[in-house]
Each structure stands twice: as C-alpha cells, then as structure tokens.
Amino acid sequence: LNTYGNHFIEKIINKDLKNQVYRKLRTRFPPEPNGYLHIGHAKSIYLNFYLAKKFNGYFYLRFDDTNPIKEKISYVKAIKKDLKWLGCMWDGTEKYTSSYFNYLYKYAIELINKGLAYVDKLKKNEIKKYRGTLIKPGINSPYRNQTIEENLLLFEKMKRGDFPEGNACLRAKIDMKSSFIIMRDPVLYRIIFSNHHQTRNAWCIYPTYDFAHCISDAIEHITHSLCTLEFQDNRRLYDWILNNISIKYRPKQYEFSKLNVEYSVLSKRKLKTIIEKKIVDNWDDPRLLTISGLKRRGYTPEAIKNFCMKIGVTKQENSVQLSLLESCIRSDLNVRAPRAMAILDPIKVIIYNMPDSQKEIITIPNHPNNKKMGTRKSIFSKEIYIDRSDFNEKPSKNNIKLSHGIFIRLRYAYVITVTKIKKNNFGKIICLICKYDKNTFRKNPINYRVSGVIHWIAKENVLNAIFNIYYPLFKIKKPDLEKTCLPFINNNSLVQKKGIVEKSIILNSKKNFYQFERVGYFCIDKDSLEKLQKKNHIITFNRIVTLKERKSN
Ligand code: ATP
Ligand code: MG
Ligand code: MG
C-alpha cells in the first residue's frame, strides 16, 4: 500500500487534515446498480478504500439508485459480492440514495420556496433545444416565471402522479446564459412510473444524479467526494445546490481520470450490448474486464489491487495496456500457483525399450523455488503423451523439439529419442515410438547432448480436459471510443481445445489455479468446479494468462 500514495488527491487530503478542515476522513464508492462492476470501478474502489484506511477514516458504499428503470436488486447483490471479493469491505451497512428521498424532496421544496427552482412543462426535446450549445446561449423556458405558489402546487401534483411521464420536471433556476451548459437550469426531478427495488411505489418523481449526489454526500458527512473527470463541470452545480439549501455540511468534489484498458470496453451500456447480443455469455464471461469476469478468468484480488496501485491516480486520460494487467496476475501466480503438466494437443508416445509392467512412481516438486508447496506423486510408464507441437518430423538446426536423432528430456524423468513414426491412412501422425535411456533419470548422459526439455503425462495419469483459450474481445485498441463497438469484435476470442492434465494434481490440490509448465496459467472454470464430483464430467480450464508476454499486442 505504501508505494501507491502521494498522488494529487492524497496531497489535498494531507493538507486538509493538517489544517483541521476535517477531523475524520470519509470517502464513498457510489455505484449505480445498473450493471456489474468492472476494472474501472476497481480503480475508484481502491482509491477510496485505500485513503480511508490510510488516514484511519471511513469508507462507505452507497448505491446511487435514482433511476428505477435501469436498476435491479440483482445488481445490488452482485456489486456487494464483488466488493467483498476484492477485499474492500465498506464501513457500516451499505447506504442507498433512495433512503434519502424524503430529505431530497424537502430540499427541493426549499429551493422552490427560495425562488430557485420551478416546474417546467416543456418536453424533453424542447428543454434540450432551449438549452443552447457551447456557442449558442440558452433561452428561458416560458414556465420559468411562475410564482412560488404555482411551483409548489405543480411539484405537489408531480409527486401525486397527476402528470404523465415527460410532461413536467423540476428545474433549478440558475442562468440560461451560463458558459457552463450544466448551469443552464438543470433538471432536479423527473417523473418515472416504475417500481423501485428499494422504495417500491412510494415515489413517482426521482431526483437526478446532480441533485441527489451532493446532498447524499453531505448527509453522510463525506469529506472528499471523488469522481471521474467528466463530472468536472458538474462540480459547479454540486456546490451551487449545497450553497442554496440549509444543509450545513460541505463535502468537496475532486475529479480524477477514468481507467480505459486497450482492446476492451468498460462502459456499462456497451457491456450490456455485447451480453444482449450473446457475443459473450454473461457479466462474468472471462473475456470481460468485469470483476466477476476477471474472477472467473482466474484473476486474484491481489493482482487487481496491484494493477490499481501501478496505474496510480492522475488527471490524464489514457488507455492502459492489457499487458500491464496481465503482468500483474502473472507475477502473482508465478509465486503462488502450483506447477503441473497439461497437454493441449496430445500425441501418444510408446517407449519400446521399457517393459510393459514397469510403472515408476516419481516425486515432483509443486513449485521449483518453493519447497513449502510440497511434492506430488506421478507415474512414468511405457505409454505416455506429449504435445504434438513438441515433435518435429524433420529435425532442424537449434532443435529443441523431439525428432529423429534429437535427444529430449522428459521433465523430471528420462531422456528419450524417436525411432519410428506411426501414421494413419490420412497421413496424420498418431504415435511416436521412442527409446529411453534408463541411466538418465534426472541426470545428464555423458556421451551425447540433450537438446531440450518437454512435459509429458503417463497414460495411467491421464485426465481428459477442455481448455478455454482466451484472446482479446476486440480487434482495435480503443473500442470504448467508438459509438458502437460491435463491428470491432474479434470473432476468435475463445478457442476451445481438448487435451489432458495430470490426474494426480487435480484430485489432490485445493488450489484452483495452476501453472501448466510451458503452457500457461490456468484455473478450473466456475461451472466445472461445481460439477467436479459428478460422474463423466470433463473438467474445464480457463487460461488466465500466457507464461510470457504475447508479442502480438
Ligand atoms: P458507466 O458509464 O460504465 O455506466 P458510471 O460511472 O456511470 O460508469 P457508476 O456505477 O456510476 O458507473 O460508477 C461508480 C463510481 O465508479 C463512480 O464514482 C465513477 O466515477 C467510478 N468509475 C466508473 N467507471 C470508471 C472508470 N472507468 N475508471 C475509474 N472510475 C470509474
Ligand atoms: Mg452510468
Ligand atoms: Mg454514474
């Protein structure tokens, strides 16, 4: 945690605490329950969580639930689950903007009474037209000069449900000519006839983000309200609302840049589209950078945290390389993942000079540099499997593959060489007849050179498996910048392979992630893990990440 700090927000906080502007730091994470959390949210979560912990303050979770059309209780549950998994437990019980609806309503009345808010009956598109543009000042609504009494009555009618949706809204009376468009009489309340996951049918008027957020922050005594840069202009409105109502507490808003990751989309709208179009399975598809997707892919909370620490917090908009995220999980798993053997494209090998009955039990370390991770028993026998890609029909220079006249070590076992190749009627190699040197068990031969080391699995130790190999979901670096991301989908983002793994490890290890030597880091897929005890279930592994950085992106 120590290397991360000292970004501009931490400097502000240090100063505020030194000057005793606040006694206790309070931060919050305010997700709207309209989708699942993603890696961008993790950036915001760690920022708020870390600051609260570092300065011995409080970290709150508040559901920003002001739009019942888009929100669902299942999203509330998923968000809580993901936060817990990330290890960022919030202080106290979770909060809901909707539990402040009574206060918000009261403050809206206060603004009306001060002549600072009015009920507008313009339609949505008219409001937009009247608002003007950056170069064109706005025009006052014809309803802007109603009396306070008229506005109170109309707002009451809105609340009672007398107006259909879209036929009236409450607006702040600020300045239609402001150079900040957000200050051109922003909407504070709109009519929505929809059941709310918390308040059911108690309300048919709902506060907007801008009206609800600042007041909720003040109610909770949030000291530093951190949000992303696109809310920079909204800060004026944030302060305007708090300055014009009778609430005493003054939280302050600060903005930092959003996280974007290359070859991925993070915006919930786009994530929803690719789920609805069935391009991916669900919110937890391992190809998505959602928290649940990353979890299912085999990412650890530690790796995600490490990533957030590495990217830091600034005001610069940029896109982070996928390889940075990958390097975080790789270095975590390198230390923690037990090693094992897996073969994605198996080919049979018969060691002809080994007796049929010979079965050797050999002991293999679970981690090359960590004795504490122990050892496992494996079998070496006459019939084994190796990966097809570790064999070359024609030997070439610098050969590290098995071939005629080339000697290759089977990892943790003996040196072998090929003597005969068996093909089927279509010319496909189906079996390699090999010879082993029984004097080379974990020791080098004296009179010839060994060209390389490959992994293998004995027939007695074979467990069939399916391997999900993932590639980036998009063909372009910045799909999040496009209006629609669908034309840029990589149709080969998932490649499934049928292969084998060592039976002994899967049955013995409690860990859910492995480094399959020379192949990559893998985890057992969530669905498969549940069915593991079932008869005839073929285990499925997800590739978390390759062993080395891929060159192609
Ligand atoms: P989206 O556009 O995907 O719907 P959002 O900002 O509307 O995102 P919220 O649920 O409102 O999603 O976000 C909760 C918090 O997370 C906000 O404070 C927001 O600023 C922050 N956040 C969202 N996306 C990112 C991101 N990509 N990088 C950093 N912080 C983010
Ligand atoms: Mg949103
Ligand atoms: Mg939002």
From TrEMBL:
TM region(s), chain numbering: none
Enzyme class: ligase
One Gene Ontology term of the molecular function aspect: glutamine-tRNA ligase activity
Family: Belongs to the class-I aminoacyl-tRNA synthetase family.
Originating organism: Buchnera aphidicola (Anoecia oenotherae)
Pfam families linked: tRNA-synt_1c, tRNA-synt_1c_C, tRNA-synt_1c_C2
Domain tRNA synthetases class I (E and Q) anti-codon binding: 453-525
Domain called Glutamyl/glutaminyl-tRNA synthetase class Ib catalytic: residue spans: 24-334
Database matches in PANTHER family: GLUTAMATE--TRNA LIGASE, GLUTAMINE-TRNA LIGASE
Any GO BP: glutaminyl-tRNA aminoacylation
GO cellular component, as recorded: cytosol
Catalytic activity: tRNA(Gln) + L-glutamine + ATP = L-glutaminyl-tRNA(Gln) + AMP + diphosphate
InterPro entries: aa-tRNA-synth_I_CS (IPR001412), Gln-tRNA-synth (IPR004514), Gln/Glu-tRNA_Ligase (IPR050132), Glu/Gln-tRNA-synth (IPR000924), Glu/Gln-tRNA-synth_Ib_cat-dom (IPR020058), Glu/Gln-tRNA-synth_Ib_codon-bd (IPR020059), Rbsml_bL25/Gln-tRNA_synth_N (IPR020056), Ribosomal_bL25/Gln-tRNA_synth (IPR011035)
Coiled coil stretches, renumbered: none
Superkingdom of this protein's organism: Bacteria
Start and end residues of each Glutamyl/glutaminyl-tRNA synthetase class Ib anti-codon binding domain: 337-437
Lineage: Bacteria, Pseudomonadati, Pseudomonadota, Gammaproteobacteria, Enterobacterales
Protein name per the record: Glutamine--tRNA ligase
Enzyme Commission numbers on file: 6.1.1.18
Keywords in alphabetical order: Aminoacyl-tRNA synthetase, ATP-binding, Cytoplasm, Ligase, Nucleotide-binding, Protein biosynthesis
Stored PROSITE patterns: AA_TRNA_LIGASE_I
